[in-house]
């Protein structure tokens, strides 16, 4: 039995982040599907492990960890890939992981969710417009940063790339055209060409 168990579901880009880490690092892991759309993440059995009632959680022996960024940090410590070799590198990586959590995924994830999984009549046009604006501002930042670069934080792929990639490989569910952002598109292609890469709907379960 694999040492790592990740509670996840295929539609979750935040769960895709640690799942992708496992795939790229060649680490065996066990996916545990949760029926998010039926509210299983709010059940007592789940909240006893994660009182924030969010997906994913990682279980590794007696350790249970929530939040994808914290999970990625833990996996770097355990597995030793896609991390840093100095404090300066660690700070640069975490600058971009935190940027992703605050400026990119924080807009990308809810916009995609409402655009694809919520009936149009239940969407708030003002909220959608705000998320669209913030998301496009973040894309401009990333597009500018990636000019002349291969990877986000360092001269090699790190958890900064894995974190930012979380919601970038959902095909038609992505609420914008990556062709408008050629530097980001080239980065996405490089990441997808790494040995072990698997897209989210192939890597994580969508049902029991």
UniProtKB/TrEMBL annotation:
<dbReference type="GO" id="GO:0016740">
    <property type="term" value="F:transferase activity"/>
</dbReference>
<comment type="similarity">
    <text>Belongs to the GST superfamily.</text>
</comment>
<dbReference type="InterPro" id="IPR040079">
    <property type="entry name" value="Glutathione_S-Trfase"/>
</dbReference>
<dbReference type="InterPro" id="IPR004045">
    <property type="entry name" value="Glutathione_S-Trfase_N"/>
</dbReference>
<dbReference type="Pfam" id="PF00043">
    <property type="entry name" value="GST_C"/>
</dbReference>
<dbReference type="InterPro" id="IPR010987">
    <property type="entry name" value="Glutathione-S-Trfase_C-like"/>
</dbReference>
<feature type="domain" description="GST N-terminal">
    <location>
        <begin position="2"/>
        <end position="83"/>
    </location>
</feature>
<keyword id="KW-0808">Transferase</keyword>
<feature type="domain" description="GST C-terminal">
    <location>
        <begin position="86"/>
        <end position="208"/>
    </location>
</feature>
<dbReference type="InterPro" id="IPR036282">
    <property type="entry name" value="Glutathione-S-Trfase_C_sf"/>
</dbReference>
<dbReference type="InterPro" id="IPR004046">
    <property type="entry name" value="GST_C"/>
</dbReference>
<dbReference type="InterPro" id="IPR036249">
    <property type="entry name" value="Thioredoxin-like_sf"/>
</dbReference>
<protein>
    <submittedName>
        <fullName>Glutathione S-transferase</fullName>
    </submittedName>
</protein>
<dbReference type="Pfam" id="PF02798">
    <property type="entry name" value="GST_N"/>
</dbReference>
